């Protein structure tokens, strides 16, 4: 059984807004070109895309929002601009509704192929991305939440009990968090550039202490990166000391990856330093879960060079090739370890693999020392020094300072 690549090649032009310069059609063409050049595309099964249906989209989004997006192909440019302005950092083009349906549909085709055993795993190369979009709002280049829809679809159509969503994009997929924060059947893990809430989308709820709500408490795991420049060791540490133990305990039936590569080196958004080969390892580590049923869906990734390399690393690993020896493992940095400890402590009450988290720091280290020696309480406790000529009070015994003390009396003083 081979891996699959769902390629959504439909290109379109965003409104000429400066922020649209990074989420460009070339992201897909260079990725595909790299897969062809490296011979990986030949080893994959290509799966045709379909449009997501209204029913698919309504698994996550509201009817009002879907109806509003449906009107965008018929809007004048002026109306489109106005429509766009009510959301954050998203740019509507007359063609985007069509493309967004294809992007979500591609993710669903991939889920179908994996769940029916046609392929073992796969990657959907799609635009627009999805993880920022919310029930009733577009956000951050995202129109429909491709991965959130895929999770609900897998549960509904295939009776999947537990879905793990791993979001290794450098942005917080707040749309995914909102969709599942009270749902214990979907474990959402996201690491993201945060910088103490200074980085987009600047949400308080992207921090480590948003652990899920109600029945879903413990099933939302946020790892904030409070510094840029994170490296391979930082990423691997989070996987090894947090995500994997929890994921094993969760025991998912399906793994979905919000596969954004703006977390790779050279990306103008992420400004991180992890190299493309790290995605071979991250992918490989996740392939042990859910019997290998893994669907990666492209999210961000704006450095065309590192994007294409990272896509190839991921797909080659999905195809079963061993990962290359990891490079530059110098150990995690202080800031990454701080984040790791915060997340582990925040989740210690929800996961037995973390139940002793927080006890490993120096300050709380368990020390052993001997019992202090037993202390004997003396039979006589108080001495009163009295001037000459004063009568000794009742209950006291008088010794003159000049007389030699009888050893017998001294022994009674002890
Ligand atoms: C991508 O990264 C390379 C290498 O660091 C750099 O030369 C190039 O300018 C980057 N491109 C973008 C769009 O950031
Ligand atoms: Zn991103």
UniProtKB/TrEMBL annotation:
It is found in: Nucleus. Its main location: nucleus. One of its GO terms (cellular component) is nucleus. The keyword RNA-binding does not apply. It comes from the Eukaryota. GO terms for biological process: epigenetic regulation of gene expression. Belongs to the histone deacetylase family. HD type 2 subfamily. This is Histone deacetylase 10. The lineage of its organism: Eukaryota, Metazoa, Chordata, Craniata, Vertebrata.
């Amino acid at each position: 059984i081979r891996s699959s690549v769902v390629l959504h090649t439909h290109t379109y032009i965003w409104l000429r807004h400066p922020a649209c310069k990074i989420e460009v059609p070339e992201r897909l063409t260079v990725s595909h070109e790299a897969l062809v050049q490296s011979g990986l595309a030949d080893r994959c099964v290509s799966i045709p895309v379909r449009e997501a249906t209204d029913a698919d989209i309504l698994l996550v989004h509201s009817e009002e929002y879907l109806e509003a997006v449906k009107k965008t192909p018929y809007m004048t440019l002026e109306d489109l601009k106005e429509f766009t302005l009510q959301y954050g950092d998203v740019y509507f083009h007359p063609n985007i509704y069509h493309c967004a349906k294809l992007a979500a549909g591609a993710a669903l085709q991939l889920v179908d192929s994996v769940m029916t055993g046609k392929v073992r795993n796969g990657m959907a190369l799609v635009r627009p991305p999805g993880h920022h979009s919310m029930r009733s709002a577009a956000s951050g280049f995202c129109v429909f939440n491709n991965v959130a829809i895929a999770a609900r679809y897998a549960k509904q159509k295939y009776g999947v009990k537990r879905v793990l969503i791993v979001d290794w994009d450098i942005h917080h997929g707040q749309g995914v968090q909102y969709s599942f924060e009270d749902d214990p059947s979907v474990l959402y893990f996201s690491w993201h550039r945060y910088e103490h809430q200074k980085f987009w989308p600047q949400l308080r709820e992207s921090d480590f202490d948003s652990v899920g709500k109600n029945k879903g408490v413990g099933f939302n795991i946020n790892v904030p990166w409070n510094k840029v420049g994170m490296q391979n060791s930082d990423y691997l540490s989070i996987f090894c000391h947090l995500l994997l133990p929890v994921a094993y305990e969760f025991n998912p039936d399906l793994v979905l990856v919000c596969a954004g590569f703006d977390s790779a080196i050279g990306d103008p958004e992420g400004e991180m330093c992890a190299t493309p080969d790290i995605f071979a390892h991250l992918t490989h580590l996740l392939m042990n879960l859910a019997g290998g049923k893994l669907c990666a869906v492209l999210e961000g990734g704006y450095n065309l060079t590192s994007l294409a390399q990272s896509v190839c690393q991921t797909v080659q690993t999905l195809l079963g090739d061993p990962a290359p020896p990891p490079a530059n493992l110098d150990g995690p940095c202080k800031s990454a370890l701080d984040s790791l400890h915060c997340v582990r402590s925040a989740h210690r009450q929800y996961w037995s693999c973390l139940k002793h988290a927080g006890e490993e720091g120096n300050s709380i280290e368990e020390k052993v020392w001997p019992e202090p020696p037993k202390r004997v309480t003396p039979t006589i406790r108080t001495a009163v020094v009295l001037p000459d000529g004063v009568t000794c009070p009742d209950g006291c015994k008088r010794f003159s300072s000049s007389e030699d003390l009888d050893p017998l009396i001294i022994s009674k003083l002890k």
